[in-house]
Amino acid sequence: MHPPLSVARCLSVALLIAVSVPAAATSPSLPHWGSYGRDAQHSAVSTVASQPINRIRWQMAVDRKPQYSGDYLYIHYGSPLISAANTVIVPVKARAFGTYRVEGHRGSDGKRLWRRSSSYVSPPHDWVPSFSPVLSPTGTLWVPGKGGVVNSFNNIDSMRPSRATRNVFYGNDAYRLHRRDYTRNVFINTPLTADNNGTVYFGFQVTGPTSLNLTSGIARIAEGGGATWVGAATAAADPAITKVAHNSAPALSLDGTRLYVVVNQADGLSAAPGYLLELDSTTLAFINKVRLVDPLSGMDAQIHDDGTASPTVGPDGDVYIGVLENPYPSNHFRGWLLHFAASLAPKGFPGAFGWDDTASIVPAAMVPSYVGSSAYLVMTKYNNYAGVGDGVNRIAILDPNDSMLDPISGATVMKEVMTVAGPTPDQDHIAMFPNAVREWCINTAAVDSLGKAILVNNEDGKLYRWDTVTGLLSQSLVLTPGLGEAYTPTLIGPDGTVYAINNGTLFATGM
To answer: pLDDT confidence of 484, banded at 50, 70, 90?
Structure first.
């Protein structure tokens, strides 16, 4: 994916009416991997060990009409979701431009159980934003639609899920009376995030007039009834702020009382300054904010709508968020992974890469060679894009509480605990950069804490197992011939099946 201007391949409060959710006819299926990054903290840590990635067990298209630009596929794919009963819920783009749906598939063999259409329409964009439902801890599936509508239904492990209920954060009456204006001018622009009570949160963008004078912002819909929203500029107390950053999923504190959201001044087609906000998760009232700043230059960092960086909340409540450097490409388009305390007070040192990736949490016990004092580490991609860097693209495990001198920027950054370079030469750049390798095109990686491994996708078309005991890429599986691909997640199912998206296709891999 392209960073902005890059030559690289790999970019990557108003209380409103109550809403109702139908009761499930049978026991709801709890989520195993319920959201982007698995949980509301986006930790991406699996509770089961992954299977060896020996073969492709089944596969299906997540994009029925991929829109290629040469060898590139400029899109962000929403994360599949997996229930505890091993139903795989897959967001699908059915046509070239828009027309989305969700499908439920049996995890054991990929048999389709059901299919539901969605009216979802993407907001104004450069790269296509993600269509990203959430399976709440109460067993309700929430699916974004157009006009800021979210549809919810239950019984997702059956052949016939319950009928969908329409949930409108600004009120069903306004939607019914002025539907045309809302469907034209209101767009959900982030993945959905759910708390333990089934309440969902998301960002939305408003591009034209509405009867309620909506402004772009953050919405909350409670499963038991009730909806709240707040404008992004109001939440940030800054009239220059225009919206929540595209693709940046809200995150919740460990106790669910605080909501972390990234807002910016961009229009969906660019990078711009912004804030990380801490809001009350019940009222969306302001608690804290921090201006996101380049740690080396002291200038405003750039929050890019072509990226997928979302806040990650660590086991100690600390918050991590990726930004793009300013001026760029002063850090080789790598951006920074910023580190804050739960109160958003600056903490520790930045990671040397961060702008288009969501950090994954790595329990320190996964890395036997680690001798530091941190209870957990963070994993991120660590590309050094050819053209501004040497093209040696890595992934890394970093110590958020220790430091080193970064050889590229000269900044003091999080200490590298373990890194590994991509193994496939980058033929497009190898003439000028002899060590260039294909990039890690990921937005979140799956962490197998029991098997001491990280499952991660590469632009070369292969899925890799990174062994955190040996530090080696111990296994790989060819999924496709490879291409300059979209941002993609990896997941681990309740039976240990490893899921990865490559070239518009979801692959279920294992023994």
So the answer is: confident
Whole-model pTM: value is: 0.94
Asked if residue 508 lies in contact with residue 59, where contact means CB atoms within 8 angstroms, the answer is yes
Task: Name the region of 82 (left: φ>0; alpha: ψ -120 to 50; beta: rest).
Answer: beta
Q: What is the DSSP letter of 180?
A: H
> Looking at 14-18, 391-395, 401-405, which range is the least confident one?
14-18
Residue 300 is predicted with a pLDDT of 97
pLDDT of 107 over the 90 cut: yes
Neighbouring residues of 214: CB distance < 8 A, sequence distance ≥ 6: 148, 170, 186, 206, 229
Q: 72 versus 188: which is more confidently predicted? A: 188
Tokens encoding 483: 């291409």
**One-letter amino acid for residue 216 of the chain:** S
Query: Cβ(474)–Cβ(36) under 8 Å?
Result: no
Specify the pLDDT at position 27: 54
Residue 308 corresponds to which amino acid?
T
- Residue 28's pLDDT is what? 67
Query: Residue 441: what pLDDT?
Result: 86
In one-letter notation, the amino acid at residue 403 is S
Question: What single DSSP character describes residue 296?
Answer: T
The stretch 219-230 carries a mean pLDDT of 93
Is the four-CA dihedral 127, 144, 90, 245 of positive or negative sign? positive
C-beta separation of 314 from 260 below 8 A: no
Cβ atoms of 101 and 114 closer than 8 Å: no
Contact (CB, 8 A) for 466 and 476 = no
DSSP class per residue in 372-396:
SS-SEEEEEEE---BTTB----EEE
- List, in order, residues 6 or more apart from 213 with CB less than 8 Å away: none
Q: Is the sign of the CA dihedral 7, 442, 414, 279 positive or negative?
A: positive
Secondary structure percentages of the chain, helix, strand, coil, to 5: 5, 40, 55
CA–CA separation, 349 and 298 (whole Å): 14
Locus of tokens 């409060």: 13
Contact between residue 391 and residue 426 where contact means Cβ atoms under 8 Å apart: yes
| Residue 488 burial by Cβ neighbours in a 10 Å radius (0-12, 13-18, 19+) | buried
Specify the length of the chain in residues: 511
The average pLDDT across 158-183 equals: 95
The pairing of strands 505-510 and 498-502 is antiparallel
Lowest mean pLDDT among 8-17, 127-136, 265-274, 363-372: 8-17
Residue 23: how many CB atoms within 10 A of its CB? 8
Grouping H, G, I as helix, E, B as strand and the rest as coil, residue 85 is coil
- Cβ atoms of residues 446 and 44 within 8 Å: yes
